[in-house]
Fold each of these.
Amino acid sequence: MPKRTTIRDIRNKAADGQKISMVTAYDAFSARLVEQAGIDIALVGDSVGTTLQGRNDTLGVSMQDMLYHTEIVARSTERLLVIGDMPFGSYQVNEDQAMENAVAFLKAGANAVKLEGGAAVMPVIERMCEAGIPVMGHLGFTPQSTNITSGPRVNKSRDELMEDAESLADAGVFALVLEMVPGKIAQEITQAIKVPTIGIGAGPHTSGQVLVFHDMLGFSPEFSPKFLKRYLNFHQQALDALKQYKAEVEGGKYPGEEHSY
Ligand code: KIV
């Protein structure tokens, strides 16, 4: 049986100068594809709110939703490191509740959790790490703060981001997502802190990259941030296939003799 990737494997890979790959997964289908492709980490992201639930942002995603998806991803894979993304409201109210929720992620099969934010979340990150819960940090654009930033933008200076990154590393995060951080600042942070950085729209000099499964495979043509590279145009190909099916059903072309018992 293949060995599941560990935090130590991720650290060693970064220390060897190899890039880390992370992609979101929410279900058995996406998780197995991500695993078969040899990706290092599956992030069960709260982006499930926009990709699968049809929401405009991630704020409405619940703990129940996240545990449901985390359990499926963990159960359907053998090798991926699985990270559960703590949804809005699950770690902001008080530390005890945050701890209970982080524990619930690990009981659902996650190997680690991810939290957004800087100074405000450091005490709870320290507590989680002391309790044996590995934590991934997330700085730059933090989608759960979209009402403060008025959309997808970073409202912190280089020095503030650097200070937050250093404090998160000191608090014990094993890796740090940098979202939409200008490439030069992301490079400086990567050189300054002792844990790997995983960029999304943060240039080529981070220790690794993350993309959302549905975005990189072209499920949603309307979502086109500058950083996104589409590796497949799934939307168009699926649309063409569905139209062809409809035409063949209506034209009596499908099913043929070869599809009949
Ligand atoms: O929820 C998510 O998919 C994320 C990534 C964009 C890092 O947080």
Amino acid sequence: MKKIPKDFLWGASTSAYQVEGATDADGKGKSIQDLIPQKPGVSNFATTSDHYNHWKEDVKLMAEMGFKSYRFSISWPRIMPDLTGNINEKGMKFYENLIDELIKYKIEPIVTIWHFDLPLEIHNAGGWDERDLAIPLFVKYSKALFERFDGKVKYWLTINEQNMMIMFGHVLGLVQVTDGYKHLKNMYQQNHHMMIAQAEVMKMYHDNFGKKGGKIGPAPNIATVYPKTCDPKDVNAAYRTSAIRNWLYLDLSVKGIYNQTVWQWFESNNIAPTIKDGDMEIIAQGKPDFIGYNYYNSMTVEKPEVKELVLKGSDQQLAFDIPDVFKAFKNDKLQQTKFRWGVDPSGFLQTSRELNDRYGLPILLTENGLGHEDVLTKDGKIHDEYRINFLREHIKLIPQILTEGIDLIGYNPWSAIDLVSTHQGIKKRYGFVYIDRDDEGNGDFKRYKKDSFHWYKKVISSDGEDLD
Ligand code: BG6
């Protein structure tokens, strides 16, 4: 087995709206995440982990764990609070301080430009439906970041989980139309506009920035898709699901083309996006240097059964069956987390293989992890052996991935410190560091090192060899 190299990017991830809090501080504008209603007893994003006021302490803890990288997002509305496109200097300064502090500890900043927190003013003015509004503002925002941080930041991620925003827009906040196939048509039109925006940003970066080895890439959520059985209809469902869920986005980003399986599905349902003259040329010109991917678990499907398109977003699991494509199947070969997500380390290997076979680019794991309700003991400890077990089973496969010739350059699980989940509050914790607060807002934000903190520190210092 190949050894994990010394320059492997060991670290962890967060996103601005889930970790920072301080939603109105220092000229920040509102984002769509401030408006998404949460269920009773589920925290909103007003204070989260108060990282905005604890960033120095948090970076120190990351350094103590030996992080080689930290993947975080910059809050779009903190930098660009309104439609004027003017830049909020206080917002910039916050990230400049954070980046400088990371560099001081030799932690490589991996920066996501946009992670779910679309500025509310853009959303209210039509959001990604309005190509002439959203695309130029995204490009302007990205340019401001490159101008300020080029050289200091060598790894840029354009858009976090664009595929999840399109497929689960009803949960993540992008939906403008909720009516069955009209909803899909609308979401795929928004997707097309995001693809143009991303390509413009990648081209601009390559033309003008990153001359000292800087790299840029997308960060979708990629999961291998299994058929429920060897029934050819199930296998066909799995193939088409993977095209719609995974490859649509990366074929556009990397190859500059619409995936044919998906396009045929678009046409047969009248949901194909309108493509203007020149759009595909722009998309083809924006090429990523690497692919960031979030992998949590595999997906299993069977042949479609449902007749109608129904959008569901439940507390425990999100489901989205597409009538002529697939029906989601709960894979009984996989263990489930307390929040009913399947646990499938071998899917990490399989997903990495598929990415490598299709695109042949370096890949960077930008999320992976276990959401769990942790208990803070009276003596200030958190015994999260379930998280250690989950991470160990994934990390164990990294030498195998490398030995197969796949250029995996780093592992950045979710999340560096506890933060508020997309729709299940702070009780669903992922971090190596426990934040003392609950969903009702009790707690003093004190930081506690979990058992996984000490374990991960050992993993990093032994280059992934000591996993006990
Ligand atoms: C990823 C997102 O989908 O999964 C994160 O990029 C998110 O923002 C993470 O927090 C875990 O999902 P959840 O729903 O448990 O917060």
